[in-house]
Amino acid sequence: MAEAEEKETRSNEESTDESEEDESEEEPKLKYERLSNGVTEILQKDAASCMTVHEKFLALGTHYGKVYLLDVQGNITQKFDVSPVKINQISLDESGEHMGVCSEDGKVQVFGLYSAEEFHETFDCPIKIVAVHPHFVRSHFKQFVTGGKKLLLYERGWMNRWKPSVLHEGEGNIRNVKWRGHLIAWANNMGVKILDVISKQRITNVPRDDISLRPDMYPCSLCWKDNLTLIIGWGNSVKICSVKERHASEMRDLPNRYVEIVFQFDTEFYISGLAPLCDQLVILSYVKEISEKTEVECCARPRLDIVQPLPESCEEISSDALTVRGFQENECRDYHLEYSEGESLFYIISPRDVVVAKERDQDDHIDWLLEKKKYEEALMAAEISQKTIKKHKILDIGLAYINHLVEKGEYDLAARKCQKILGKNTELWEFEVYKFKEIGQLKAISRYLPRRDPVLKPLIYEMVLHEFLESDYEGFATLIKEWPGDLYNNTIIVQAVVDHLKKDPQNRTLLRTLAELYTYDQRYGRALEIYLTLRHKDVFQLIHKHNLFSSIRDKIVLLMDFDSEKAVDMLLDNEDKISIDRVVEELENRPELQHVYLHKLFKRDHHKGQRYHEKQISLYAEYDRPNLLPFLRDSTHCPLEKALEICQQRNFVEETVYLLSRMGNSRSALKMIMEELHDVDKAIEFAKEQDDGELWEDLILYSIDKPPFITGLLNNIGTHVDPILLIHRIKEGMEIPNLRDSLVKILQDYNLQILLREGCKKILVADSLSLLKKMHRTQMKGVLVDEENICESCLSPILPSDASKSFNVVVFHCRHMFHKECLPMSNTASSVQFCNICSAKHRGPGSAILEMKK
């Protein structure tokens, strides 16, 4: 008892311990609180014996014969002194306007709470139960039952007289009764019976399972789940019975209804009360246990279990041990379970305590998650149910989650969650930043600080940057690159970096970062100097972005040394800002770089750098010989004599050959190929390009005493020079490699030429015939002659004005027309005449005559 009082004090009489498995990770299904206020006052002087629940109020009976009406908070609204002894049962109709009360001294009262209607009766034995008709408020349902040694039904009849009738007797005291609709269920010492009030027929008898238990110490618990489903709990046995209609063919002398037991199972402990919860059951159990100290069986805390009924067993959903006042002294009959339909409220009544159990809502779920330190799940649950939760705020849960992560040392995760939880609240952001600073974890939160909408005070960002500058140059450089320059005071940070560079002037990371800071501050010149010193890849981007060409006029060599390709492309793309002459002048002392620039300029435009083509000859010869010959071929501005001189000095044979041929000295060029290169194929190719008979003659003369050269000529000369000229000059007895193959090739080439000629001839003949036919068809067509045509000789209309006169007109196929008398006579013996106009130009088809007479 002392222990119970001590726990009550700690909880301020507001709640009771929920479970002896508090450490379990399984969330309870119900939450509990003591019914206080007036109930506390009542139970300090009296003890509860029974209670009934209506949706609007509660009715509590005590051992001292009092009945109290209470609101749902436990405040007393009305008090009735019914008897000096224990109230055994209270019954209310569905309207809550009529109440029946019975007591240990045999008194029964049924009266209206809001009317003068009243019934009093005193029996000679204790009355254990009373139940008024659920619709007692209606005049034709004025009925109630009482139970002592027998079950009596009272009905109001003529002249408002109450007429009793015995429904059942002879099986011991009536222990419990529940009335639902037209069905009454009651329990006596032998079992449970169900009666149909309308037909006055008893439907069934459900016998008691364990007859060894005293029915007064372990009373039967009855509960209607609906109008046709009765739940029976007695001892440790539970039965769920369904009332069904009997088929007409099966009736005979049987009641028109029968009962089927659909579920039946045993529990671990003795049952003190039952209540439905959707398709599950709530069971209040009386528990006994062996004391560890005395090893004597004693009363333990009662349990409230939620179970899922199965056909022959049940599945436990949850189980809570309740610490009620005085549980050590209570018996199974001292506990009662009442419930409020539709609200999922369950009332556990004991002599010294009334505890209310209710289904846990989302706020309770979040409470449990927070208690178990499952903050992330709690935050997720709050976000999902933010419209329905009343007790919790998402922000408060989020802040608790961040604190929890910080306490666990998960600083990075805590910082990451700040983004989602703190949102745009700048005050909370700044508070969290200072908190991270206090624990030395500014680096952890730096990556997640807001940079746009919202923006924190510059001091916050500066504080983080200083933290990195003191210990992590790379991290500092990363933040400078990622953060916009307007988040902090750039001047302060620049000065801090400069101070650190005094200690370590060659630190590339700091130098690079300082250049970026100068860029944010629009001091591009200083940034460019640092980038060039570091040879940083962003130097060209910086020049382009901020148009710094005027600053690099004297830094061209540095840029070329860093990346000649990008530098040249940039300089050529911006000739209007830095002229070609200026670049060439700057690179005068670095001819290799000068060549790179001029070469790319020449590739872009052969004419732009024409004044430097003479210089380029030497540059190509020195640094890029493979591109010298293409340059000489493409350039029209380089002096050939200068180029020839340079090539001859350096003994560049191919380039010299090209220059000699270009200058018209093909024979010297050919001689150099033969004597210097000893390459007959190249000599033949050169002779083919020049297409000069004298060159072929020189080539044959040079090759006539060299068998390998003769083989090359035989293989390639056939299509340009008559091979007989070469063959006749070959000395008898000279051994020529692959001569047979060469002769065969000559013959094949000759045959190929003959075939080509014949093919071309066939094509020409076919084309000529086709064109002749086309011309014939054209000349056979008529020619329109009208008043608009004129004589090409006298220039008068070709047709006379008087159409009745005869006339002669000559029309040629070329469409020139003449009066016959205007056409001069032909001097030739041929009868064919030709158009004078066309004949003066040239004689051809179309100038023949077409004579028209009338």
TrEMBL record:
Composition skew (Acidic residues), residue ranges: 14-26
Lineage: Eukaryota, Metazoa, Chordata, Craniata, Vertebrata
Physiological role: Plays a role in vesicle-mediated protein trafficking to lysosomal compartments including the endocytic membrane transport pathways.
Biological process terms in GO annotation: cellular response to starvation; endosomal vesicle fusion; macroautophagy; protein targeting to vacuole
InterPro entries, per the entry: Beta-prop_Vps41 (IPR057780), Clathrin_H-chain/VPS_repeat (IPR000547), TPR-like_helical_dom_sf (IPR011990), Vps41 (IPR016902), Vps41/Vps8 (IPR045111), WD40/YVTN_repeat-like_dom_sf (IPR015943), WD40_repeat_dom_sf (IPR036322), Znf_RING (IPR001841)
Organism from which the protein derives: Athene cunicularia
Keyword Metal-binding assigned: yes
Keywords recorded for this protein, A-Z: Autophagy, Cytoplasm, Cytoplasmic vesicle, Endosome, Golgi apparatus, Lysosome, Membrane, Metal-binding, Protein transport, Transport, Zinc, Zinc-finger
Name of the protein: Vacuolar protein sorting-associated protein 41 homolog
CDD domains named among the record's database cross-references: RING-H2_Vps41
